[in-house]
Design brief:
Layout: H1 9-39, H2 44-66, H3 69-95, H4 110-133
Helix pairs in contact: 1-2, 1-4, 2-3, 3-4
Length: 138
């Protein structure tokens, strides 16, 4: 049985388009959760950081949708690092505390955030790898 695992350029671009859309959805979801928490009452320095997180999520989502070539790969790498840093910050706050803030699993959207951000790391990593492998057209 001979199975051809090579994808054509058109197939690869289709996969890349789907992954870019999924990446943008994940980034908007991560930013949206943080913005919701600000409107739900998280204030002070943490509230400001959450607003910045929401802005970064939307900016990276736009980048994943509109950029091409090398800039798309750079945006993908930055997006993976962004979501990974957000996840690690939450996990640190849940375990040992972060900047004097200790979080609990019962706080608003904590379990959902962990799930979405974990999925986001995987989706964004795949999107970045597909962007790297997609042939560039002139």
């Amino acid at each position: 049985m001979n199975v051809n695992t090579n994808m054509t350029g058109t197939d690869n671009r289709t996969v890349l388009t789907v992954m870019r859309i999924l990446s943008a959805i994940v980034l908007v979801a991560v930013g949206g959760i943080h913005l919701f928490l600000v409107f739900d009452g998280v204030g002070g320095v943490l509230g400001v950081l959450f607003v910045l997180n929401a802005i970064a999520g939307v900016a990276l989502a736009i980048g994943m949708l509109v950029l091409r070539g090398r800039l798309l790969v750079i945006t993908g790498i930055l997006s993976v690092l962004f979501v990974l840093a957000t996840l690690v910050a939450l996990l640190l706050a849940l375990t040992v505390g972060l900047f004097g803030i200790t979080e609990t699993w019962s706080f608003t959207l904590v379990p959902e955030s962990v799930i979405i951000e974990s999925i986001g790391v995987v989706v964004l990593s795949i999107a970045t790898l597909v962007a790297l492998r997609t042939p560039r057209t002139a």
